[in-house]
Design brief:
Elements lengths: L10 H10 L4 H14 L28 E7 L4 E6 L7 E4 L3 H11 L7 H12 L5 H4 L4 E5 L24 H4 L2 E5 L17 E7 L11 H15 L4 E7 L18 H10 L4 E6 L1 E3 L7 E5 L2 E3 L1 H4 L8 E6 L28 H8 L3 E5 L5 H16 L4 H14 L1 H4 L2 H4 E4 L12 H5 L2
Parallel strand pairs: 1-4, 4-5, 6-7, 6-8, 8-12, 12-13
Antiparallel strand pairs: 1-2, 2-3, 9-10, 10-11, 13-14
Helix pairs in contact: 1-2, 7-11, 11-12
């Protein structure tokens, strides 16, 4: 038969034992004191509590978090997916042939002003599912694209709705960026540079005037960027402007010329956070070796750029075709036969992506050098004023959009790959702190 026994130790029985006295009275008193402390006696209010309960509000997503739409070609058809906060990711098939896409790319490359509105509407109707309209109407946007669909000029699609009866391009009205889906880029980790501050390299108008490679607008652009960056405390600027041996205006009396070998040495050894290039770019899809930044002594190519051990966080390449990615494969194989991207002969943009650049701005076609200067001044003024990277690019596009009677569709040539919400890119030490 089971026998019920009272607990051997409890506060009441210990209290009685302490009152009864006896040889172990002192021990019993100490035991009673310990039990009262464990029970949270008022006499021990100064004792640090064993557990702490805090009431916290749930963390809400940041307003800066962009909506995302992903486009890729799976080898059979084009697919699109809207990535948002719900439990599912809606995916759609786009029933548009690759030959139609190719025709659209050609038509949208540096189009005449009279064709822009129609092409903008056509791009959206052909390739963006109508049920993704709510995503397009949200805040900032990132389009994730594979190599095939990166060739499309997504920046030209119109915003849904209109302003004063006039449709605006999506990338002018709101922050809009791209990300490349690729198998070769490294993990997004960038080691911090010791010493703090921010280091910038500005390269301007390095082409040979005797070969008609000089660009007065690129020289002015580089000088303005240098001036803007140097106005910021904690920013160290190296500038190389103008071709070696060419006549130099008074504005360049204290600036070294842009010698290709010296610039390459600076890139390899200078540990820069930001590199700005203003000049000619050369890209020939049939001759992959003919791609890079133009200097008086020749091209600076992906082969040389690929030697960088620490890629700059920010590349602004205000040069012709600097946003173009290669679709040429080693061994003359067709792109759709490649199982991976390892066989690609990269363009300059590809090489920077491969190295892990955080934010890259380039142009999709040949740009007007005066318009490029206008974009650069607007872009850096916004960054230095505290705007996010994406907003600074948007303001640059918007400035060119308002001047479209002069510069045509130049606003649409600017493509930004990276994080549009990254902020304070030019604040000293901020690039390392934020991982940007």
């Amino acid at each position: 038969m089971a026998v019920l026994r009272r607990p051997r130790c409890s506060a009441p029985c210990s209290s009685r034992a302490a009152r009864d006295g006896g040889p172990n009275a002192t021990v019993r008193k100490l035991l009673l004191q310990r039990i009262l402390e464990e029970g949270g006696s008022e006499s021990t209010t100064t004792k640090r509590p064993r557990f702490r309960v805090e009431r916290r509000m749930p963390r809400r997503p940041s307003a800066e978090t962009p909506a995302r739409i992903s486009f890729w070609d799976d080898g059979q058809t084009i697919r699109a997916a809207a990535i948002h906060q719900a439990a599912t990711v809606p995916e759609r098939f786009i029933g548009v042939g690759r030959d139609v896409v190719d025709d659209l790319i050609v038509k949208m490359t540096d189009p005449p002003a009279s064709d822009v509105d129609e092409l903008c509407q056509l791009l959206q109707r052909l390739l963006v599912p109508t049920e993704f309209g709510d995503v397009l109407r949200s805040g900032s946007l990132v389009f994730e694209v594979d190599r095939s669909l990166a060739r499309l000029h997504w920046e030209m699609q119109p915003e849904q709705g209109s302003q004063n009866g006039e449709p605006w391009p999506l990338s002018v009205r709101k922050v809009f960026a791209r990300q490349m889906r690729t198998a070769y880029s490294p993990a997004p980790v960038r080691p911090a540079r010791p010493g703090g501050g921010l280091r910038a390299l500005v390269i301007g108008d390095p082409g040979d005037p005797e070969k008609d490679q000089d660009l007065p607008g690129a020289m002015n652009e580089a000088l303005k960027v240098k001036e803007l960056l140097e106005s910021r405390d904690g920013v160290f600027v190296e500038a190389r402007i103008g071709a070696p041996g060419a006549s130099r205006p008074d504005e360049l009396y204290d600036v070294k010329p842009a010698d290709r070998l010296e610039v390459l040495a600076l890139l390899l050894n200078g540990d820069f956070d930001l590199v700005h290039y203003a000049g000619h770019g050369d890209f020939d899809p049939e001759q992959p070796s003919r791609v890079g930044w133009v200097f008086a002594r020749g091209l600076l190519t992906p082969g040389e750029i690929g030697r960088l051990e620490r890629v700059p966080a920010v590349i602004v390449s205000n040069a012709c075709l600097s946003a173009r990615t290669s679709f040429v494969l080693d061994g003359a194989r067709r792109p759709d036969e490649a199982k991976t991207e390892a066989g690609l002969l990269p363009s300059l943009a590809d090489e920077f992506f491969k190295l892990g650049v955080r934010n890259y701005v380039g142009t999709a076609w040949e740009v007007n050098d005066i318009g490029a200067e206008l974009f650069a001044r607007t872009f850096y003024s916004a960054l230095l004023g505290g705007e996010s990277f994406g907003e600074a690019v948007r303001k640059g596009r918007e400035k060119l959009w308002h001047e479209r009677e002069t510069y045509g569709a130049l606003w649409a040539a600017y493509q930004h790959y990276g994080d549009p919400a990254s902020s304070a890119v030019l604040a000293p030490g901020q690039a390392e702190a934020d991982g940007n």
